[in-house]
Amino acid sequence: MKTGTILAILGWLLFFLGVILLIPLIISLVYDDGSWTAFLWSSLIGITIGGAFAYIFRAEKEINHREGFAIVGLSWILAAGLGALPYVFSGKIPNFIDAYFEAMSGFTTTGSTILKEVEVLSKSLLFWRALTHWLGGMGIIILSLAILPILGVGGMQLFKAEMPGPTKDKLAPRIQDTARILWGVYLLLTLLEIFFLMLSGMDLFDATCHAFATLATGGFSTKTASVGGYESATIDTIIIIFMILAGMNFTLHYRILQGKIIKSIKGEELKLYLGVGFGATVFIMLSNWWNGIYGDMLENLRYSAFQTWSILTTTGFGTADFDQWAPSAKTILVTLMFLGGMAGSTGGGIKHVRALIFLKFTKVQIKKLIHPMSVEAIKLDGKKIPQDVVQSILGFLSLYMVVGIVATVVVTFSGIDLVTGCTSVIATLNNIGPGLAGVGPAKNFADLPYPAKVVLTFCMVAGRLELYTIALLFVPEYWRDARPPKTRWSR
Description:
Layout: H1 3-20, H2 22-31, H3 36-56, H4 65-90, H5 96-107, H6 123-138, H7 140-147, H8 155-162, H9 175-199, H10 204-215, H11 233-246, H12 250-257, H13 261-265, H14 268-290, H15 297-312, H16 327-339, H17 352-370, E1 379-380, E2 383-384, H18 387-413, H19 418-429, H20 450-464, H21 468-472, H22 476-479
Antiparallel strand pairs: 1-2
Protein name: Potassium uptake protein TrkH
Binding site for K(+): 109-110, 218, 314-315, 431
GO molecular function, one term: metal ion binding
């Protein structure tokens, strides 16, 4: 393993984030909110440390899969560390564990928060929360592939380690071009949502923050009451539409823009994603109507649809306290937390394609019990799924269950009740945001013990990077052949 390459690229990433921190600094000066020094010091730390690493250590020409996984896993850990500094330096979140939790929640697009009142933050800090979502949504690594030439060599290894889902679509021969295409689509949808939110009555600042959080499926809002604080059916509808788009594979958006509409909408995963979303909306509407939660059917549709798509896409925005809904509705919402969005989306969860292939695998196993001599192939969109992909999915699901159970045991061991502990793990591991009971949509993670927050922070990054990337960092064998880093002065 080429440790010099890892350190050099991590240095470039810290340097890049240090430069990005100058944007909220400018926002602070514009609004004169007094937080500019917090961003200045944070930016200087990122630029200085990152620049030093990039200058001292030498990146070799090739990046293999080992370096790729290490760079991706460590980059998120370091990014959250740097991203936490503005909260600490401003004094708004003085405890570093809390600040790190908030920053990791931002970059991993989880949306869980330790803030009891969001409005106490300055405009620039609110913008930084939203910006961490937007950067983390498509991935800092993918952005770096698009704009940093140093990552152009061997970049496919970073792309494979970063992009969520069992398959990675390469839209262009060069990985830099693929990254630019994905970010182009991402930026276009973000600008469209900002435009429509402003038409609906939001000011530019709030529209930008909510568009960043929506397209990243993050959930950080500029209001403690989240989107519900605006009390606008129009805003709710706009955000529902863009949450649905954000939960879709971004390569589909690009192909639709190319005019390949029919071919793009025929995919099995898209049909399952839309079918689950609309079906769950209807079921939750019926549950709310049957239990007398909402008397007016339009009101019922508005709140049921919003919370269904907010949870399914792992965005986590709130317009209603669904913890007060009937157990049947809450059961459906918790189930949706596991599914998440489509592969290649900014959403979390296990992804619909994995669920679909697992169902096909189960169906094949049942058939083989009935007809032992039959030869069955698992197909998706008419194409045979390679055996190694199926095994990878089964392994992922097994690891997912182990991590979820162990994390729940550790969190509840710290004195948290079962519902709060279990759903806090589900919410963070799937990058949802709110859970139930003590971490429900009307509450937050502030009062959880620090050991629980540390475990949940780990769950956020593990879920965002699909478990394997982070799990590898804890395997001693993975680091066994690590070579001393080559510096600029090494021969």
